[in-house]
Amino acid sequence: MNRGMAIPKVLSVLQSELPPASPVVLEEAIAYQPGAVVSRTIGKAKGGSVTLFAFDAGQELSEHTAPFDAFVQVLGGAVELTIGGEKVVARKGETVRMPNGIPHAVRALEPFKMVLTMVRE
């Protein structure tokens, strides 16, 4: 609830689905779908984006690269990330940085949810 507070103009460039000045449990803001990957962008600006993902077990994103760094914050479950050919397992509460220009892939070891924050220069 805004409660009449003025939102600083600097935030006006951010497009967001989340209400300002209200707590949100991100893990509850996206639901699993059987056999699918679900995504929901909750913030987007020139400098980057914040997207929630829910992966069913065994679902994956094939290898690709991004022109900017991406941070995976695991909200629940476990994921295997392959970054530059190296496998990294992350679990709830852990964060992994995927550097720009380095090929990476995502595979759900079990149903898992994450926040993907992409930071542009």
In short:
The protein has no helices and ten strands. The chain has 121 residues and is an all-beta fold.
Structure description:
By secondary structure, this protein is mostly beta strands. 0% of the residues lie in helices and 50% in strands. The protein has strands at 15-16, 37-45, 48-55, 60-64, 69-76, 78-83, 86-91, 95-98, 104-108, 112-119. The strands form two sheets. Strands 1-2-3-10-5-8 form a six-stranded antiparallel sheet, with no helix packed on it. The chain is globular and about 40 Å long. The model is unreliable at 1-13 (pLDDT under 50).
Our Rg estimate from Cα atoms comes to 15 Å
Strand coverage percent: over 45%
> What do the pLDDT scores average to?
89
**pLDDT < 50 runs, ≥5 residues:** 1-13
**Total DSSP helices:** 0
Series of secondary-structure elements, N-terminal to C-terminal: EEEEEEEEEE
Spatial order of the strands forming the largest sheet: 1-2-3-10-5-8
Shape: globular
Q: Structural class, from helix and strand content?
A: mainly beta
Largest sheet: 6 strands, antiparallel
- Indicate the percent of residues in helices: under 10%
| Terminal-residue CA separation | 32 Å
